Amino acid sequence: MEEKKPKFSVVNLMPGYVIGRNELAESSAKLRAGSNFVVLNLVTRVVNPNTVVGTVVDVRDTARVQVEALDEEKVVGNYRSFVVERPVELNDAVTIAKKAFPEAFEKGILKGGSTNSVYQAYEGKETKEIFGELRTYEMVKSVVGQFVELES
């Protein structure tokens, strides 16, 4: 980019696990395809003995940031990279789901699972300054709610 100085910019967006409602999923099995499996496994009693990277981003934030990244007044420079993720304790998805969907736990549609999560802290100050706050981990309610709908 520095050498050739093209008339276009390159912006790299590096998201964590992208989770959220998937309007194309017609079944709970299809909803599990892709990154949503991380959350759905936790709320359906899957116990993962492995360590999983605990960084997520809501699909709506991912789409918003992709569009905003096209604004050359907002993203100045011809080569930029941004980490677009929120570090979380993945197991908190179960607690959030229990509060939001207690009847689904009573019916056995949802059950608590667990995993070990780890994340590397990063400096997301510039991402936050340019694109604003990302949704909190409460975002899991959108995909868990869709799962409950599909299972019901």
List its traits.
single chain, 152 residues, Rossmann fold, three-stranded mixed beta sheet, two-stranded parallel sheet, 22% strand
* Count of DSSP-assigned helices: 7
Counted up, domains total: 1
In one word, what is the shape? elongated
CATH architecture: 3-Layer(aba) Sandwich
Reported for the largest beta sheet, the result is: 3 strands, mixed
Side by side, the strands of the main sheet go 2-4-6
CATH class: Alpha Beta
- What would the CATH topology be? Rossmann fold
- Rg over CA atoms: 18 Å
Helix content: 25-40%
Q: Output the helix-strand order.
A: EEHHEEHEEHHEHH
Could you say which structural class the secondary elements and strand pairing correspond to?
alpha/beta
Low-pLDDT sequence parts: none
Instruction: Give the strand tally.
Output: 7
What does this structure look like?
The protein has 152 residues and is α/β, with parallel strands linked by helices. Helices cover 36% and strands 22% of the residues. It has one domain: Rossmann fold (3-Layer(aba) Sandwich).
Structure, briefly:
This protein has 152 residues and is an alpha/beta fold. The protein contains 7 helices and 7 strands, in the order ββααββαββααβαα. It has a 3-stranded mixed sheet with strand order 2-4-6. It has a two-stranded parallel sheet with strand order 1-5.
